[in-house]
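Exercise 7b. Backbone tokens:
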């Protein structure tokens, strides 16, 4: 690329670089940031070349972009070009630390701690190798459940293994959460320093 001449390859690199900078991580449980910002970016790029795009959500924050380019020969079948805006971890990546943050009324902390203890055998049965609940001494009523599973695939299997009884326990614990939004869930995958 020269100062006065931008090649098509340079433009593709810039677009890819911009897209990579947008966090679209998708842990599989709708707790990620979603694809909306990436979808709006792609729709903007399409608009720059005169294509009208629709930005659609199948679930809050799960966003797709749809655009149509008319073909020249209407006797030919349509061609669908499809791609993903989200980024999903590889199944064997791990170990994975899952953290669930709760905000609890300080008058209810004893009952909350008693209730959340019921999650330990469920998490361990479903593959957790460690499990603990931490309280934040700097923020009264803030508790973080933390557990580690061996891989991303093992964590996804935890969702599949949940029984009706497990969901009842989880709902009972969530009732202690006083923030306006659901408890915050964070997924952390161990860095593989050999490949960095």
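Sequence design result:
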């Amino acid at each position: 690329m020269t100062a006065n001449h931008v090649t098509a390859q340079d433009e593709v690199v810039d677009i890819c670089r911009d897209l990579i900078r947008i966090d679209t991580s998708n842990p599989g449980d709708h707790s990620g940031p979603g694809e909306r910002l990436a979808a709006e970016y792609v729709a903007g790029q399409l608009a720059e070349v005169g294509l009208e795009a629709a930005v659609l959500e199948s679930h809050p924050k799960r966003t797709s972009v749809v655009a149509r380019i008319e073909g020249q020969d209407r006797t030919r079948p349509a061609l669908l070009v499809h791609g993903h805006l989200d980024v999903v971890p590889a199944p064997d990546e791990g170990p994975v630390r899952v953290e669930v943050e709760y905000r609890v009324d300080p008058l209810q902390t004893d009952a909350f701690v008693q209730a959340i203890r019921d999650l330990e055998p469920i998490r361990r049965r479903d593959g957790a190798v460690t499990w603990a609940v931490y309280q934040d001494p700097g923020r009264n009523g803030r508790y973080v459940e933390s557990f580690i599973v061996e891989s991303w695939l093992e964590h996804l299997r935890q969702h599949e293994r949940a029984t009706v009884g497990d969901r009842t326990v989880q709902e009972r614990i969530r009732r202690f959460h006083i923030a306006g939004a659901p408890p915050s869930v964070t997924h952390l995958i161990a860095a593989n320093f050999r490949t960095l």
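Instructor comment: The longest strand covers residues 96-103. The helical segments are 8-20, 36-48, 109-116, 119-125, 152-161, 164-174.
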